[in-house]
Amino acid sequence: MKSIFLAVVAIGASLLVNAQQKQPIYLDLSKPIEERVENALSLMTTEEKVSLCYAQSKFSSKGVPRLGIPEVWTDDGPHGIREEVLWDEWGGANWTNDSCTAFPALTCLSATFNPELSLLYGKSIGEEARYRNKTVLLGPGVNIYRTPLNGRNFEYLGEDPYLSSRMVVPYIQGVQSIGVAACVKHFALNNQEEWRGHINVDLSDRALNEIYLPAFKAAVREAKVWSIMGAYNQFRGQHCCHNDLLLNKILKSDWKFDGVVISDWGGVHDTDQAVKNGLDLEMGTYTDGLTTKGKFPYSDYYLANPFLKGIKEGKYDIALLNDKARRILRLIFRTTMSANRPFGRFVSPQHSEAARKIAQEGIVLLKNEQQFFPVPVGKYKKIAVIGENANRSLVVGGGSSSLKVAYEQSPLEGLIAKYGKDHIVYSLGYASGSALYGREEPSKLNADSLIAAASEVAKQADIVFFIGG
Fold first, then answer.
1. Cα–Cα distance between 273 and 242 in angstroms, integer?
2. Which residues contact 109 (CB under 8 A, 6 or more apart)?
3. In degrees rounded to 5, what are phi and psi of residue 315?
4. If residue 176 lies in a helix (H) or strand (E), which one and from where to where?
């Protein structure tokens, strides 16, 4: 009996050794990432490598199912985890468990001048992305404000290249410490929404390097960001999502970026340039990146069948494909297939406190004549609150910044909670109407009547809070 037992143990040990020896290197979490990447790459077919390089749905791209390599799932940031959308449409999927924490816009974060808060912000939003099992958080945005009229300014880190550089590094480090890739955007010179897919930006090398690139450079060289998103606009005649100077020469050669270049949704226009000029992952092509619905074959993307056909015909060097696949595999092994990926958490009290703290430090008080603030409870019998923004949702910034939040408290609700409903009177004062991607619809309310009503409310109050925008 003893000999039979020993024989069974020996056989079991032998099977275990054989199983360990047969395990592919790319699945061995103890091996260095670069060794795992090269092993996985060596086991893939050309078709599998190409399939990594383009979207399979609105917000995801393929993995390698045969090898057990998971898909890449992206999600819009940079100040909240966007609700789940339908596979091939922009409309919400109507989940009941995807209402996120609303963090302050990044312009508010930048106004704190506090890198420690930026790290807290990154960790907090990274945890929410991780909880929702996202691979890539599409943020932060670091384009420098060239004009106050840019529709994306609220989600960028300000107008000063040094400040943006100091604030972006801890944000990225916070996100990536949770095992989620940050995707710094929009590289580069994205300074307006109108005609954003067509404009051609031209400027001097000095302005480019001293003003518009430092924050991106810090994201790559200091924060070691794992992905970057190209911009819609052109720079010196080439679209930024496949721009040789920006992507090949500056980003990948000069800065030694080893991550993934992801296109903005609908930002790719040419297979030759996409293949040769540094783009790695194509997302959102054949949509306008905004509201378009419809069925279309992802296999027709510029980096899909046209890329595969060009490789098989000898038009494109296989080394170009290997570089793109290698970068995407590296991203996956840094995130979903990492041995040290922590768990996330979602809409936690800690996240709510972080959002409050950031918002509080980001508020800029220009004047406080006669020490008007803070206004103590009980000092005034009647407080007038004027302004549409006092009582409207402010978590829908449009497009990628639209959030479905777990809760939201308006300024009016906060003032009522603090001072009591019997002491607050509210008047709209103005109505902004609506504007969506170039279509402006004026309010149907009479502006003069709104002003007159607000004036009467103000006359009867002891103090007035105007909340405008």
1. 6
2. 117, 118, 121, 157, 167, 171, 358, 362
3. -70, -35
4. helix 161-176
- What is the pTM for the complete model shown? 0.91
**What is the dihedral angle through the alpha carbons of 88, 91, 94, 95, rounded to the nearest 10 degrees?**
60
Q: Are 48 and 304 in contact (CB under 8 A)?
A: no
Q: Which residues are catalytic?
A: 264
State in Å, rounded, how far the first CA of the chain is from the last one.
Answer: 85
HSE-up (13 A, CA, CB side) for residue 226: 28
Extract the runs of DSSP E, i.e. beta strands, from 231-363.
234-235, 238-239, 260-262
CA-CA-CA-CA torsion sign (108, 251, 135, 264) = positive
Residue whose token pair is 């293949």? 275
Contact 346, 109 (CB under 8 A): no
Give the C-alpha separation, 411 to 391, whole Å. 7
Residuewise pLDDT in 10s, the chain (469 residues): 555 555 545 555 554 445 455 789 999 999 999 999 999 999 999 999 999 999 999 999 999 999 999 999 999 988 999 999 998 888 889 999 999 999 999 999 999 999 999 999 999 999 999 999 999 999 999 999 988 888 888 899 999 999 999 999 999 999 999 999 999 999 999 988 888 888 999 999 999 999 999 999 999 999 999 999 999 999 999 999 999 999 999 999 999 999 999 999 999 999 999 999 999 999 998 765 554 555 668 999 999 999 999 999 999 999 999 999 999 999 999 999 999 899 999 999 999 999 999 999 999 888 999 999 999 999 999 999 999 999 988 887 666 778 999 999 999 999 999 999 999 999 999 998 776 555 667 888 999 999 999 999 999 999 999 998 6
Query: Where do we find the tokens 């595999």?
Result: 329
Q: What is the DSSP string of 326-372?
A: HHHHHHHHHTTT-TTPPP---S-HHHHHHHHHHHHHH------GGG-
Where are the strands (E) in 180-333, listed by range? 181-187, 200-201, 227-230, 234-235, 238-239, 260-262
Dihedral class, residue 256 (left if φ above 0, else alpha if ψ from -120 to 50, else beta) = left
Q: Tell me which amino acid residue 17 is.
A: V
DSSP 8-state code for residue 249: I
